[in-house]
Amino acid sequence: MSRSTVGGYQGPVVILNMDGEEVARAACRYRAEEDGRGEDHWNGRLHRLAPEGAVVAGAFRLRLPDGQEGDATVREIVNTSDVIVYFDGIGGRPK
User: Fold this and answer.
1) What phi, psi does 70 have (nearest 5°)?
2) How far apart are the C-alpha atoms of 63 and 52, rounded to whole Å?
3) What residues contact residue 38 under an 8 Å CB cut-off, 6+ apart?
4) 3 state SS of 14
5) 3-class secondary structure per residue, 36-77
6) pTM (2 d.p.)
7) How far apart are the first and last CA of the chain?
8) CB neighbour list of residue 91: distance below 8 Å, 6 or more residues apart
9) SS3 of residue 17 by DSSP
10) pLDDT digits (tens, 9 = 90+) for 20-65
11) Distances in Å between the alpha carbon of 88 and those of 8, 31, 35, 45, 60?
């Protein structure tokens, strides 16, 4: 099924647990695509996490500076000189 790029984001985010409590801040980059049925698919990465190790597995919520939020789940964590958390969005993306 083909997908079309419909948006994305690059900048700071607040990372919340699923209860809405702040657990970390990070730099974020994500890309959003829409499939032929009009459904959003978005994924990206977090880096420069503070504090490090705050995001380890499972679901979390991203809050953009304008207050928009989107749920995501950890896909992979890569430990280099900077910890990078790759994630997949769940449902609608923050716009």
Assistant:
1) -150, 140
2) 18
3) none
4) strand
5) CCCCEEEEEEEEEEECCCCCCCCEEEEECCCCCEEEEEEEEE
6) 0.86
7) 23
8) 40, 70, 71
9) coil
10) 999 999 999 999 888 888 778 899 999 999 998 888 889 999 999 9
11) 13, 10, 15, 9, 10
